[in-house]
Amino acid sequence: MNRAEAIIDPGAIRDNIALLRARALGADFMAVVKANGYGHGIVPVAGIAVESGADCLGVAYPSEAMQLREAGVDAPILAWLYTPQEDLAPLVASDVQISVASVGMLEQVLAAAASAGARARIHMKLDTGLGRNGCPPSGWQRLLHRVRLAQDEGLVEVIGIWSHLVSGEEPGAAITAEQIEAFELGLHEAERNGIVPRYRHLANSGGVLNSPETHYDMVRCGIAMYGLSPGPATGTSAELGLRPAMTLRSRIALVKTVPAGQGVSYNHRYRTSRPTRLALVPVGYGDGVPRAGSGKLPVLVGDQQVSVAGTVAMDQVVLDVGDLGVRSGDEVTLFGGAPGQPSADDWARLCGTINYEIVTGISARVARMYP
Ligand SMILES: Cc1ncc(COP(=O)(O)O)c(C=O)c1O
Questions:
Q1: At what angle do helices 42-51 and 62-70 cross, to 10 degrees?
Q2: Å from CA of 84 to ligand 1 middle
């Protein structure tokens, strides 16, 4: 076994996809694999997702789409975030679909299509309230007009019109209804301009699980595909029937006996209250163990959960294991999905963050294993 491993359970991802597809019957399924598949490994997850019936893959950046193509993934891919300086011709040449949310972005895509000698396939993104990278309603008509001209000239094919939810993980959020209304208006305006794409898509995992009216023609799932809940208000993984796909584990590097009053790790934020034994686990914030979890994060050693003692360092954490029968070389589970194991949700709660950040933050220093 490696010093530290993230074991990824392909069966869990498959089951989660089956569950999500059943929750969004009639809609196509986009597997969102950006950010190294939320830390689970972009290429392996893409393969598992496509095998499990995903119709399409979603990434943020062109580099992520090209990584998939270079690995031989030939499923449809949508990439949605790039800067004006990026050359998108390789995307067009590789048949990667590109999101367009402004006239400037359209011009960039048209230049790429000209240099690739191919028609660009685009999804037009409308900002229905999130205030991020969609086209504001005030600019939608102008964008539609320009896209229509490009469509008539055969330079682009509009595959989709899409938007992203503000609070999909909150059941019954008023903003979701407002976003649907804004989306509908944008779709009607598109239709009036002769743009009627194959896909209208709005829902992320939260939308799939909480709001059937957001499902439209395709749903885009990330976090729930990895077996984690999009937020506490949606329910726990267990309540939702999802299986967390990542287990992070390591081994005890050293066990040593120390007296009472021994300060532990940087700035001595932990001090032993009795003669005890300290066990060193060789993972730290350089591996993605959040430093905000200093003194708090639970780790499973044997059948006991023990909290990290003191400050999380770059390469290691220390456990005060007292009389527990812990020896150097013993396996520890930092988080996982089995009963008794700490979960990514536990870690997120204790660190004041979300489970997305916990799994996505597991760094390249940690080997990914796919049993
Ligand atoms: C545009 C877009 N769609 C879908 C998703 C997937 O969201 P989730 O992981 O909540 O399912 C993301 C992820 O943040 C996203 O940025």
A1: 70
A2: 23
Rounded to 5°, the CA angle 272-273-275 comes to 75
Distance of CA 17 to the CA centre of its chain: 14
Per residue in 141-179, pLDDT (tens digit) is: 999 999 999 999 999 999 999 999 999 999 999 999 999
- Please identify every residue annotated as catalytic: 34, 266
Q: Where are the domains positioned within the chain?
A: 10-226, 246-369
Which CATH number applies to 246-369?
Answer: 2.40.37.10
Q: Does domain 10-226 have CATH number 3.20.20.10?
A: yes
Nearest CA, atom 2, ligand 1: 164
φ/ψ of 319, rounded to 5, equals -115, 140
Atom of ligand 1 nearest to the CA of 164: 1
Stated pTM of the model: 0.98
Q: Tokens 């359209």, residue?
A: 106
Give nearest CA residue, ligand 1 atom 13.
Answer: 222
Place 1 in a pLDDT band, splitting at 50, 70 and 90. Answer: confident
Q: Are 333 and 305 contacting, i.e. CB atoms less than 8 angstroms apart?
A: no
User: CA 134 → CA 34, 53, 103, 338, distances in Å?
Assistant: 18, 28, 12, 39
Q: Whose CA is nearest to atom 14 of ligand 1?
A: 222
User: Whose structure tokens read 């309603």?
Assistant: 137
Task: For ligand 1, pick from 29, 123, 220 the residue to mutate: most ligand atoms within 8 Å of CB.
Answer: 220
For ligand 1, mutation pick of 32, 229, 246 (most atoms within 8 Å of CB): 32
Give the position, in ligand 1's atom list, of the atom nearest the Cα of 225. 11
